Amino acid sequence: MRQEPTGIRRLTAGEHAATQDPMVLAWSHVYLARIYDDEGNPEVAKMEYQSVLSVEGGPEQAKQAAQKGLAVFAGDKPIARP
Q: What's the CA gap between 54 and 26, in Å, rounded?
């Protein structure tokens, strides 16, 4: 398992959070969700995807990516795992 993605994590929480840039904040949550999902941590991935949906003024494409990711967890699509 890789180390915590601290560079991206800093953009989503704490004093360096991109709260003034909804595009950066939303996409940072999307990328973190994908990393956590790839590492086999679906609960944290879901939380990150849900965070995207709460970013006020976030880009529609990021919200669509989050909804697609959440749909996979909801069983709307089969998950191909080796």
A: 9
DSSP state of 3: P
User: DSSP assignment, residue 5?
Assistant: -
Neighbour count for residue 62 (Cβ, 10 Å): 22
**Residues 36-60 pLDDT 10s:** 999 999 999 999 999 999 999 999 9
C-alpha closest to that of 75 among 50, 53, 46, 47: 46
**pLDDT tens readout for residues 24-33:** 999 999 999 9
Residue 31: closest CA among 44, 21, 16, 14: 44
